[in-house]
């Protein structure tokens, strides 16, 4: 008879239970354990024999990967190429029902995950069940898990159903009682050109986009020279970095002016300066930096200190987005209005240099 141990949703499970679970895993055994969504099957990730047995019990093909489960978001995203973007989702949804599939390679990880990484991708998750988190935190080796049901069958919401449905018996059952949610985690692949929902779950794609991306606004005076160039250059930089239109990742880029008249076309020299870099302002029309518009943003970048001062005085105290100068060095970007095309080019290049420094704040 398979040993079954009580395993409540507690941050301090019994020491004997943790010790037995770790012993089973360390020896290549398979556990049934609870998460906040469904019951799962867990195995040691750095033992090929354990992973092979896990596939046999699950009935899962070799080309279908398992998910690395961890106790902390910082460890899960340690080698993420886009720490800020991934971190925003982790901060909101972890611990919780979200699996992020990120780029990785075996040499990049501090633990042996060569049998888990497939085609350069690694799934990571931080579950919300307190007992399971305690187990993951205490394990000196990586642990992968998958739902405790045959592939294609309904998920198990209690320990007895998990045991009954499996093709072969596990070595230990951690019984946390019935699970209420009963829906598997959302699985999202995030990488160059990809913000792809691999499995629907408790979190919608739209919610993930709203969390991952940022609403960014560039502010100058009339919204016809500097800030339109900053908007176009920001969109181009994010497109190049993300590998697709930034809106795919939930980014929204706008520009406004503290004294702008809605509907005004951009200056001719701004259009030419951006066209030289393959960018177009043909559809741009000025809009005023009203409190209603600004309050919808997450990050607002002003081209000069006077723009920032004007904007801050118009916003309700203690409310609104992060407002700062575009230049990380705190420098003003000079206004080229009425100047030569070369002045507009210099302004464009100053803006571009500041944006490249800001990029790591966004992704």
What does this entry look like structurally?
The chain has 363 residues and is of the alpha/beta class. The protein has two domains: 3-210, Alpha-Beta Complex (DHBP synthase), CATH 3.90.870.10; 213-362, Response regulator (Rossmann fold), CATH 3.40.50. Helices cover 34% and strands 19% of the residues. The chain contains twelve helices and 14 strands. It has helices spanning 15-26, 48-58, 73-76, 83-93, 130-138, 159-165, 205-212, 226-242, 268-275, 291-294, 305-314, 341-362, and strands at 3-6, 31-34, 39-44, 67-69, 98-103, 121-125, 143-147, 172-175, 186-191, 194-199, 215-220, 252-257, 299-302, 322-325. Strands 1-8-2-3-7-4-6-5-9-10 form a ten-stranded mixed sheet, sandwiched between helices. A four-stranded parallel sheet has the order 12-11-13-14, sandwiched between helices. β13, α11 and β14 (322-325) form a beta-alpha-beta unit. The longest helix has 22 residues, at 341-362.
Major sheet: arrangement of strands: 1-8-2-3-7-4-6-5-9-10
Looking at this structure, what is the CATH superfamily of the largest domain? DHBP synthase
SSE order? EHEEHEHHEEHEHEEEHEHEHHEHEH
Query: Could you tell me the strand content as a percent range?
Result: 15-25%
Whole-number total of structural domains: 2
Count of alpha and pi helical runs: 12
Radius of gyration: 26 Å
Set out the fold topology:
Layout: E1 3-6, H1 15-26, E2 31-34, E3 39-44, H2 48-58, E4 67-69, H3 73-76, H4 83-93, E5 98-103, E6 121-125, H5 130-138, E7 143-147, H6 159-165, E8 172-175, E9 186-191, E10 194-199, H7 205-212, E11 215-220, H8 226-242, E12 252-257, H9 268-275, H10 291-294, E13 299-302, H11 305-314, E14 322-325, H12 341-362
Parallel strand pairs: 1-8, 2-8, 4-6, 5-9, 11-12, 11-13, 13-14
Antiparallel strand pairs: 2-3, 3-7, 4-7, 5-6, 9-10
């Amino acid at each position: 008879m398979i040993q079954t141990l009580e395993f409540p949703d507690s941050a301090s499970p019994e020491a004997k239970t943790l010790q037995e679970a770790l012993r089973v895993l360390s020896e290549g055994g398979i556990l049934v354990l609870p998460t906040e969504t469904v019951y799962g099957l867990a195995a040691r990730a750095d033992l090929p024999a354990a992973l092979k047995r896990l596939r046999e019990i699950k009935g899962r093909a070799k080309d279908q990967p398992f998910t690395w489960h961890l106790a902390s978001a910082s460890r899960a995203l340690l080698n993420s190429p886009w720490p800020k973007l991934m971190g925003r989702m982790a901060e909101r949804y972890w611990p919780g029902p979200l699996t992020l599939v990120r780029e990785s390679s075996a040499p990049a990880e501090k633990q042996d995950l060569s049998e888990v990484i497939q085609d350069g991708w690694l799934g990571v998750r931080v579950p919300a069940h307190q007992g399971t988190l305690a187990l993951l935190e205490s394990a000196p080796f990586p642990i992968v898990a998958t739902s405790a049901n045959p592939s294609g069958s309904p998920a198990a919401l209690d320990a007895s159903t998990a045991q009954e449905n499996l093709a072969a018996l596990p070595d230990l059952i951690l019984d946390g009682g019935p699970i209420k949610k009963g829906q598997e985690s959302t699985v999202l692949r995030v990488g160059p050109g990809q913000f792809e929902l691999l499995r629907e779950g408790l979190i919608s794609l739209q919610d993930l986009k709203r969390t991952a991306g940022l609403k960014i606004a560039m502010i100058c005076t009339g919204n016809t020279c500097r800030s339109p160039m900053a908007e176009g250059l920001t969109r181009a930089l994010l497109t190049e970095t993300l590998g697709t239109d930034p809106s795919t990742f939930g980014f929204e880029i706008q520009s406004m002016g503290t004294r702008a008249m809605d509907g005004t076309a951009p200056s001719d020299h701004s259009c030419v300066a951006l066209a030289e870099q393959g960018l177009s302002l043909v559809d741009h029309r000025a809009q005023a930096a009203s409190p209603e518009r600004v309050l919808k943003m997450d990050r607002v970048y002003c081209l000069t200190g006077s723009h920032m001062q004007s904007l801050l005085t118009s916003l309700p105290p203690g409310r609104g987005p992060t407002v700062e100068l575009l230049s990380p060095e705190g420098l003003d970007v000079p206004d080229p209005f009425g100047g030569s095309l070369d002045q507009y080019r210099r302004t464009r290049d100053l803006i571009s240099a500041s944006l490249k420094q800001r990029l790591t704040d966004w992704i």
